[in-house]
Amino acid sequence: MQTVLAKIVADKAIWVEARKQQQPLASFQNEVVPTQRNFYDALAGTRTAFILECKKASPSKGLIREDFDPAAIASIYKHYASAISVLCDEKYFQGSFDFLPIVSKVAPQPILCKDFTIDPYQIYLARYYQADACLLMLSVLDDEQYRQLSAVAHSLNMGVLTEVSNEEELERAIALKAKVVGINNRDLRDMSIDLNRTRQLAARLGPDVTVISESGIHTYAEVRELSHFANGFLIGSALMEQADLEAAVKRVLLGENKVCGLTRPQDAQVAWKSGAIYGGLIFVPTSPRAVNDAQAKAVIAAAPLQYVGVFRNAPLDEVVARAQALGLAAVQLHGDEDQAYIDALRDALADNVRIWKALSVGETLPARTLRHVDKYLFDNGQGGSGQRFDWSLLQGQDLRNVMLAGGLGADNCVEAAKSGCAGLDFNSGVESQPGIKDASKLASVFQTLRAY
């Protein structure tokens, strides 16, 4: 142990002694009762588990979330998490044991006390503050300490997340019969990230061990790929650094997906609840899914999606006026808009409105060389055709700024998601008729995207 980790652990020993003086074990031990929330059961099963983390700051990033409100965070996490992790270290993570009961009250999932645990006192304290599991790091503890702390946790029905970050610690975890092993992709000695650590170490653990990949997970593509190696993921910073937390969770668990051609408020609600981030409103008069301003306002009022207005060769002032009046998150250009048009549009739009450009894919992938375009949409033809292009063209491309459209439904969305695009754009494949979305088809698409 050296550098950052050694310093944190040395300071933790000082903190523990001070806290024992301030809040002696004898003053609360009688009130400590075993938990009823089973951490091990929560992570079991075939579906990939997610431990979502409440974290205000970290040594590597400094302050991550300024408006840190544990209750508000838990109220979002509870819809998606298998368990919720709460940072309790004060000095380096601006955490607190006081956050544990706040989160536990809001969310029914098991709550993990994320601390540098070196003393049985910390486990009793965590349980007193309503934690249901604790983190034990083999980079910090020897085998004897681990056995002692693990026994205390299990005596209170608490689960243990046993963290390893290298081969030697992994061998110890196996010998210690750890039930849930967290493979930390971050080297706590120098703070570097390497997702290969999960790939390399997970294979060594038996089928009776639940493997959790920790640190450095940011995208749905990473989750899908690493889910072949790990049973679950612990994700914190990637979510905490985003202002829109619910969209951030959806982005990692499902991808950055859009339901386009919304014409009815109830369809926007189903799209949002199913897992979409974006809602598409079509302002192309010839489209069977075209909406007027009144219809658009009714859809927008129904669900907190990020709304994208779809235009084709529209007058610039019309696009700008609609974006402003409706508070659009983005405008999507579906016609022959050139660089001069896009430059003028960028100047006229508010800074927070993004510009997306749809490109038709034929025999080859079109170039993505336009300035001021935040995202591209690859489609077959003019859009709304329900036909897909040849997806094999996408192989080996960096598609992080590309949405994929054209004939997407429950039968092919997983194949589409594996292309590495930022997200998928659903339209005709989730309809009962043009402009009328089918609630069961929508739910099915997102359930399929989450079935890993």
TrEMBL record:
GO terms for molecular function: indole-3-glycerol-phosphate synthase activity; phosphoribosylanthranilate isomerase activity. It catalyses: N-(5-phospho-beta-D-ribosyl)anthranilate = 1-(2-carboxyphenylamino)-1-deoxy-D-ribulose 5-phosphate; 1-(2-carboxyphenylamino)-1-deoxy-D-ribulose 5-phosphate + H(+) = (1S,2R)-1-C-(indol-3-yl)glycerol 3-phosphate + CO2 + H2O. Transmembrane segments: none annotated. PROSITE patterns: IGPS. Its EC number is 4.1.1.48, 5.3.1.24. Residues 5-251 form the Indole-3-glycerol phosphate synthase domain. Pathway: Amino-acid biosynthesis; L-tryptophan biosynthesis; L-tryptophan from chorismate: step 4/5; Amino-acid biosynthesis; L-tryptophan biosynthesis; L-tryptophan from chorismate: step 3/5. HAMAP family: IGPS_B, PRAI. This is Multifunctional fusion protein. The gene is trpF.
